[in-house]
Design a protein that fits this description.
The complex is a heterodimer.
Chain A lengths: L3 H12 L31 E7 L1 H4 L10 H11 L4 E7 L5 H11 L6 E5 L2 H5 L4 H18 L4 E5 L9 H18 L2 E3 L22 H15 L4
Parallel strand pairs in A: 1-2, 1-3, 3-4, 4-5
Helix pairs in contact in A: 3-8, 4-6, 6-7
Chain B lengths: L13 H13 L2 H37 L6 E5 L5 H8 L4 E14 L4 E11 L9 E3 L3 H4 L5 E5 H6 L7 E4 L2 E11 L6 H5 L2 E5 L3 H4 L9 E7 L6 H14 L3 E4 H7 L3 H44 L4 H37 L14 H27 L3 H6 L11 H22 L2 H32 L6 H8 L8 H34 L5 E6 L1 H13 L4 E15 L4 H6 L8 H4 L1 E6 L7 E6 L11 E6 H6 L7 E6 L2 E13 L10 E3 L10 E6 L4 H14 L4 E4 L1 H38 L6 H9 L4 H39 L7 H27 L3 H6 L3
Parallel strand pairs in B: 3-8, 5-7, 13-18, 15-17
Antiparallel strand pairs in B: 1-9, 1-10, 2-3, 2-9, 4-7, 5-8, 6-7, 11-19, 11-20, 12-13, 12-16, 12-19, 14-17, 15-18, 16-17
Helix pairs in contact in B: 1-11, 2-10, 2-11, 2-12, 2-23, 10-11, 10-12, 10-14, 10-17, 10-23, 11-12, 12-14, 14-15, 15-17, 15-25, 16-25, 17-23, 17-25, 17-26, 23-26, 25-26
Classes of the chains: A alpha/beta, B alpha+beta.
Chain lengths: ~230, ~850
């Protein structure tokens, strides 16, 4: 969560206003091993879980993408020998608006299960909740329109209490409302048991460390497993 | 002279030695004064430049201190535990603390909500600079009640007035003032959201501090006495690191603000180093000539039975005294100049430079004066030691093979060691001081060689067919008792220093002004979706704002380099590519041309991708070096799922000082157009009012677009950068003038070299004009050749400095260099002529008879 500072850092790397050190932080997009677009799928009989999200999905700050929560889920699926392939389509710093304009590119591959993890960056930038609702709704609509059979699971987020009570509660309410309206699955709070616990987060206090990511994966797994 | 004929092992008799040293100096006080004056100018140069440098540094530090507002700040993103807190409470003489976090605040009047950065403050922070508010008193008063300071842009956006209220969490605060400027907010976190200050004591009441709240804990420290904060924090670093605390000192902040401060520091050390050498030239040439003149007296004393040790000691005592007196007067003069200058140039000085008496500079100056005097006097004095009285009397000691004397080598080693050690005090780095000393040594060698060459050529070319005056002028260059080498070296070195300072100064000022004046953009908008690009640009134009840049940004990652992925690279130790390349994510752009701030230094820029071929990409120079990437490497990028095969076809340097979008990797047009991307846009807002209106419009129509107003951040920085340029100019101007004075002094001491001959020539009937032409010719050759050599050395030296020390592109204008060359040549001739004027204005007999 609390992505905006990081995002600003990343942006400033490219806008580099005289700061000598230009680090390209953030992680990106798709799992390298499994990223080749749709074409490969048809040949095999495996189904696809597509995780569409921000830095939490991309595994920001982790040494290896396999340590991110989609990576942990992939490992579990592999060990259970389930016929699923997990595609990590997370981009650090992504907002719901960014997700909306990226979704067509990502939907070139057919998901059987679509995990939607966005909104945290909107919240941390203080974007209006209604705006975020509209964007997430539009993403859900696009997935439904293109692949009606795909099961969608919405991963819920919260913003820190320091953002102010009203905003915090509006934001929190957004996910269950959307899930109910669209009849889709819901993980009530993705970072449940992880957020705010320094031991489970990286030094930035924002992104889960490998141990934290395992708990996050567990939170998702509880909702995901019945769908497999 | 008591007991002059004791032959066997007489005691040294210290008292007598001192007396002799004193008596010898009595003979010709005006001559002695001329030598001392050279020392005085040399040391005055050192002291003035050193103390001025120290003061400028201190003042710039004070200015830079407003970037952070305290001597030290410590930041944590979680509460600090009790034991650590205890440590923190031992720091500083005065302490402040602050909690900062992002929050949505509510303006009851306009019924608006907005993301801000809340800063809950307790204590006297800022210690440097102030919270600039309207009304002024609000900056400190707000801490006394439920009051807040609100960023000016925010006030304008919500049309709020002082006296209105805002709601932070569940507490309503009275807006006590508008915040115009606050120290320590150059960080980017300050830019992204406007700031609201509240008193710390009401933070708990707001209910915003809960589990899961993202709060930053900031501690500010001020020392009332002199403390080396950088050293102090180094000792604490492991402990802080373990507790995940970040710190910021004035020094670290300066480093992060860009290279301008570092450039200034380097420049000041360079100036200090050059001052040291100027001092050396001034003092050494005076002493050298002085001792040479004394050889006749020494020879007579030796013939009268003075032991060589005694003769040696007599002159050593004399030199130490002369050096000491000269240095003390020089130090006084240097300090005085330093006091007077700011008075004279008050209006030209970029900052109010404090004129503290720098005991450090004075001490260094006096010590240097004595050491240089002794070291350079030792060379001729040592030679005297081994020479029989008659030889000394014949003045033929120069033919003795001096190189065999081990003591002489010891003196050389001492001189070199001395220069290295004292450069270390100025440059603060052993390799640099050794490199600089070697550089000076080479310059010295070149000048000596050129001088020898000149003497040889003069001898070779001289022909009887020339007019008498020409022959005489030429012959002066190589005949015994010539001053070719000493003047070539001192004029040449001074010229080289002056020119180098001038070149480096103009390069640096260019660099600094590039970063200062071209920072025209002061607002960044990002996360602009492709569909919003056109309408947003339209909106911007509608507000009469320029669209300085609008660039697409695509997030990518690297799959393979030359066919190897991360795991293979990690395993294969023969591959130099760093595995980190794969861990990072790259925000790249695509376009068909280079921007003016980019320069291809290797390979060729290709702006269009060809179908079917590998995509030609350009990578940034330092990124390439860091990761051992080169032209011809094949990189497969992973553009959010799609592999894109690319070929590195060019390497670019990027001027990161410029406030604009810069990229490590640039793709050509025709590849990434369809990839998921967002746009970043730069604009310039002329005022807070416009900024507020524009922001409001953007937020309303494009709520997803994030916007950073850098106006405040840049204005503090710009002011400082502007000043840095001026400071560099002033310091170099000051040093150049000092250099010229030293140069004049060292040419001036050659006055007595030619006196005897000129008088003889006059007696034999030479006219005034003839003598003037002869000296003019001699000084013309010496001045022109040494100035030319010095200028050329300066070209080479500046190039080396630019490349290895300052890391800036080398550029040197030939025109001013030519000007310096001409000026120094003319100056040399003028002083040469002035030197002979004294003789010409008096009847020859008067001079022949008595002391001059």
């Amino acid at each position: 969560m609390h992505q905006f500072k990081k995002c600003a850092v990343a942006l400033f790397a490219l806008l580099a206003m005289g700061c000598g050190d230009k680090k390209t932080s953030d992680n990106t997009a798709t799992d390298t091993a499994t990223s080749k677009p749709a074409t490969k799928q048809a040949a095999t009989n495996t189904k696809t879980i597509l995780v569409f999200g921000d830095s939490l999905t991309a595994g920001y700050g982790l040494d290896d993408v396999s340590e991110s929560f989609p990576g942990v889920i992939k490992a579990r699926i592999d060990s259970l020998k389930l016929p699923y392939n997990v595609i990590n389509a997370g981009v650090s710093g992504e907002t719901s608006a960014g997700g909306l304009s990226r979704i067509d590119w990502v939907l070139k591959q057919k998901p059987d299960i679509f995990l939607l993890e966005l909104g945290a960056n909107d919240g941390l930038r203080g974007n209006s909740v209604q705006q975020t609702i509209d964007n997430l709704q539009a993403i859900i609509d696009k997935v439904k329109a293109k692949y009606p059979a795909a099961k969608i699971i919405l991963l819920g987020m919260q913003v820190p209490p320091s953002m102010g009570q009203k905003y915090v509660s509006d934001f929190k309410k957004m996910y269950p409302d959307l899930a109910e309206k669209n009849h889709i699955g819901l993980v009530p709070f993705l970072l449940d048991g992880v957020g705010g616990n320094p031991k489970l987060n990286q030094a930035d206090g924002i992104h889960p460390n490998p141990t934290g990511a395992k708990i996050v994966a567990e939170n998702v797994w509880r909702v995901l497993q019945p769908q497999l | 002279m008591p007991e002059p004929y004791q032959l066997e092992k007489p005691p040294l008799k210290l008292g007598w030695l001192f007396e002799m040293a004193w008596r010898d100096s009595r003979k010709n006080r005006s001559r002695l004064f001329l030598f001392i004056s050279a020392i005085i100018f040399g040391i005055a140069a050192i002291v003035a430049i050193y103390s001025f440098g120290y003061n400028v540094k201190k003042d710039v530090d004070n200015q830079a201190a407003t970037l952070i507002g305290a001597d030290l700040s410590i930041t944590s993103n979680k509460p600090v535990d009790a034991s650590m807190l205890q440590t923190l409470n031992t720091l500083g003489d005065r302490r402040s603390q602050e909690r900062s976090f992002a929050s949505m605040i509510y303006f009851p009047k306009g019924n608006g909500t907005r993301l801000v950065q809340v800063r809950a403050l307790q204590g006297e922070f800022p210690y440097y600079g102030s919270l600039e508010t309207t009304p002024i008193t609000a900056g400190t008063d707000f801490k006394n009640g439920k009051k807040a300071l609100v960023d000016q842009t925010l006030m304008l956006q919500f049309n709020a007035q002082v006296g209105d209220s805002i709601k932070v969490g569940s507490v309503t605060f009275l807006i006590a003032g508008t915040l115009n400027k606050a120290p320590g907010q150059t960080g980017i976190s300050a830019g992204i959201a406007p700031i609201v200050y509240i008193p710390l004591q009401y933070l708990t009441e707001t209910g915003l501090m809960q589990k899961g709240s993202r709060i930053s804990y900031n501690y500010y420290y001020k020392y009332d006495h002199d403390v080396n904060v950088t050293k102090l924090i180094k000792g604490l670093e492991p402990k802080l690191e373990k507790a995940n605390l970040n710190y910021d000192t004035i020094d670290t902040r300066k480093e992060n603000t860009g290279r301008s401060f570092a450039d200034l520091t380097k420049f000041l050390s360079l100036v200090g180093f050059i001052a040291l050498l100027l001092g050396c030239v001034g003092v050494a040439s005076a002493i050298h000539i002085y001792i040479r003149e004394k050889i006749a007296s020494i020879a007579i004393m030796r013939c009268l039975g003075v032991r060589s040790t005694q003769a040696f000691l007599i002159y050593l005592i004399q030199i130490i005294s002369i050096g000491l007196i000269g240095s003390i007067i020089g130090a006084a003069l240097g300090s005085l100049i330093q006091y007077l200058l700011p008075l004279v140039f008050k209006d030209f000085l970029p900052i109010t430079v404090t004129t503290d008496l720098s005991w450090m500079a004075i001490g260094q100056g006096v010590l240097l004066g004595v050491i240089i005097s002794v070291l350079f006097a030792l060379l001729p004095l040592i030679a005297i030691r081994n020479i029989s009285p008659l030889n000394t009397l014949r003045m033929s000691y120069e033919s003795v093979n001096l190189l065999r004397d081990p003591l002489r080598w010891l003196v050389y080693v001492l001189i070199v060691g001395f220069i290295v050690v004292f450069s270390y005090f100025q440059l603060d780095s052993w390799p640099a001081s050794i490199a600089f000393t070697i550089g000076i040594f080479i310059a010295f060698l070149i000048l000596t060689l050129i001088a020898k060459l000149l003497m040889w050529l003069a001898k070779l070319l001289i022909s009887n067919s020339w007019s008498y005056l020409w022959r005489q002028g030429f012959a002066n260059l190589y005949r015994p008792n010539n001053q070719t080498i000493i003047l070539m070296v001192s004029i040449g070195l001074s010229t080289a220093f002056i020119c180098t300072l001038f070149f480096i100064q103009s390069m640096l000022v260019r660099q600094v002004s590039v970063s200062a004046t071209t920072n025209t953009a002061n607002m960044i908008l990002f996360d602009i979706q492709p569909t919003q690009k056109q309408p947003l640009a339209g909106l911007t134009t509608q507000y009469h704002l320029p669209v300085i840049q609008q660039v697409p940004v695509v997030t990518t990652r690297i799959n393979t380099i030359n066919g190897k992925n991360a795991a293979q690279v990690k395993k294969d130790t023969t591959i130099q590519v760093s595995p980190h390349v794969f861990a990072n994510e790259y925000r790249v752009t695509y376009r068909d041309t280079l921007t003016p701030t980019e320069k291809v230094i290797d390979g060729e820029w290709q702006g269009k991708a060809k179908d079917g071929a590998e995509v030609p990409v350009s990578i940034e120079d330092r990124f390439a070096k860091r990761n051992h990437l080169k032209i011809g490497d094949h990189i497969e990028f992973n553009v959010q799922g799609s592999p894109v095969k690319t070929l590195v076809t060019s390497i670019r340097t990027v001027n990161w000082n410029k406030m604009q979008t810069n990229f490590l990797v640039v793709f050509p047009a025709g590849v990434l157009e369809d990839a998921p991307q967002f746009y970043a846009m730069l604009t310039h807002v002329p005022s807070k009012e416009v900024s507020a209106k524009y922001q409001q419009a953007v937020v309303k129509q494009y709520p997803n677009v994030s916007l950073i107003d850098l106006g405040q951040v840049l204005s503090i920085l710009d002011e400082l950068l502007d000043k840095l340029g001026d400071i560099i100019k002033f310091m170099s101007g000051f040093s150049i003038i000092t250099g010229i004075v030293v140069l004049i002094a060292s040419v001036r001491i050659s006055k007595y070299q030619r006196i005897q001959e000129s008088v003889l020539l006059r007696t034999m009937g030479a006219s005034r004009r003839q003598i003037l032409v002869i000296s003019a010719l001699e000084y013309l050759f010496l001045g022109a050749l040494s100035a030319l050599t010095g200028t050329l050395i300066a070209f080479a030296g500046s190039w080396l400095l630019a490349k290895f020390s300052f890391d800036i592109p080398f550029s040197a204008d030939v025109l001013p260099a030519g000007g310096i060359f001409l000026a120094i040549t003319l100056l040399t001739i003028t002083i040469g002529l002035l030197n002979s004027r004294g003789i010409l204005n008096k009847p020859p007999l008067e001079i022949l008879r008595g002391d001059v």
